[in-house]
Amino acid sequence: MRLRTILAGTALTLALAACSGGSEEETTAAQDATAETVATDEAAVEPATDDAADAAKEAEKAPEEAATEEKAAEPEPTPTPTPTATPTVAPAEEPKIAANEPPKIFTQRCALCHTANKGGEDKLGPNLFGVYGKPAAEGSFSYSEAFKGAGLTMDEATLHQWLENPRKLVPGNRMSFPGLKDAAKRQEIIDYLKQQK
Predict the structure, then answer these.
(1) What is the distance between the alpha carbons of residues 6 and 2, in angstroms, rounded to a whole number?
(2) Integer angstrom CA distances of residue 132 from 48, 85, 99, 173, 184
């Protein structure tokens, strides 16, 4: 804006010098003086213009920088950790036999000749459903005379002896089972027969 004023003033001075009928030297001197003034003023104006431009740029940057500084000053919120459930491990338990389901040892060693379900058929040996705690040789099966005459009650102690060595407990019986020496496996069979009532 200031430069325009200076240029307008210079043009006016030159026009007046030319119109006034002054000599060529006066016109040249006025032009030189005007050029010198313009150069001085331009030097003064340019930095001012640069300063003004810089100030304008700074003013434009100021809101951006203020926002950036504000963001920098503002601490980032730390996310709250999401609680996670820690899996609990249950202590290992020994596998339990489902009610009325025969243990593996019964299936392997007894099921070939015996059933143990209610109303089950007799095979080579009698159905064993309900025999626990009862007198031996009851039911429709054709027992040997030795077994019928033994007078046994099929309780836990008798069944352990019977399953360990049936020929030793009742000599002359027809059961061809060689016996089961492992007491824990005999107990599995006995526990199963206890459930079959």
Answers:
(1) 6
(2) 116, 48, 16, 19, 18
Q: Is the CB of residue 37 less than 8 Å from the CB of residue 10?
A: yes
SS3 at position 135: strand
Q: What is the DSSP string of 29-60?
A: HHHHHHHHHHHHHHHHHHHHHHHHHHHHHHHH
pTM above 0.70, yes or no: no
Residues sharing a CB contact under 8 Å with residue 122, sequence separation 6 or more, in sequence order: 115, 140, 141
Per-residue confidence in pLDDT tens, the chain, 197 aa: 555 555 455 544 544 444 444 445 544 544 555 445 444 444 444 444 455 556 555 555 555 555 555 555 556 666 666 666 665 655 555 555 455 789 999 999 999 999 999 999 999 999 999 999 999 999 899 999 999 999 999 999 999 999 999 999 999 999 999 999 999 999 999 999 999 99
Alpha helices by DSSP H, listed for the chain, are: 2-19, 24-73, 104-109, 145-148, 156-164, 166-169, 183-195
